[in-house]
Design goal:
about 190 residues; mainly beta
């Protein structure tokens, strides 16, 4: 059982996810994630969720999510992309998504009391690339009347941050862009094994 509130390792991961978000989020990356949290001005010692806000996670969570991520010291707009997730009361979460590199499946579990989600993004082979999995640890934040996610991802020894907020996929299709190559980070850089 994960203790997202008291375990020092989980506190560290939450701090890392928050740092990625605050360093790399764009000005329009989910109003519930950006403006509300930055304007709240909570002291560092304040708990991430005031106790009264835990009730908000018993209501159905949004199905449609917009997402962004950081990799290589920059925000990457086309990945992870858009998600359609189903948060079930038994703790299971699953869905689908798409990004600059194609479609993928999401599967995992979540805890409404700990306000965390563990997901695996499974990408099948497409356009000459091999299939791969991306592990995602998300912290759910209730800010004012909305919810957002901030988290960390891990894929083949590379890691970064991501954030997600309620919203439908972009109305305009994204222009194809070069998605980050996770194997392009040199050995020894950003904690990658030599």
């Amino acid at each position: 059982d994960l203790d997202a509130e008291g375990d020092p390792h989980m506190k560290m991961l939450r701090a890392v996810a928050d740092a990625y978000f605050h360093l790399f989020a764009g000005p329009f990356d989910g109003p519930s994630c950006t403006c509300s949290q930055r304007q709240a001005g909570l002291p560092r010692s304040a708990p991430a969720w005031p106790s009264g806000e835990a009730r908000a996670l018993t209501a159905p969570l949004p199905c449609q999510w917009r997402t962004a991520m950081s990799f290589g010291r920059q925000r990457v707009g086309g990945a992870p992309g858009s998600w359609a997730l189903s948060f079930r009361s038994d703790g299971h979460v699953n869905g689908t998504g798409s990004d600059a590199r194609g479609a993928f499946a999401l599967d995992g579990f979540w805890s409404p009391t700990q306000r965390i989600a563990l997901l695996r993004k499974s990408c099948g082979p497409a356009a000459g690339r091999l299939s791969h999995d991306v592990d995602l640890l998300a912290f759910l934040y209730v800010l004012q009347a909305s919810v957002c996610m901030r988290g960390v991802w891990l894929c083949r020894g590379s890691a970064g941050g991501f954030w997600a907020w309620p919203g439908p996929p972009p109305a305009q299709p994204r222009a194809p862009q070069s998605a980050p190559r996770l194997d392009a980070v040199p050995a020894g850089a950003w904690g990658r094994p030599a």
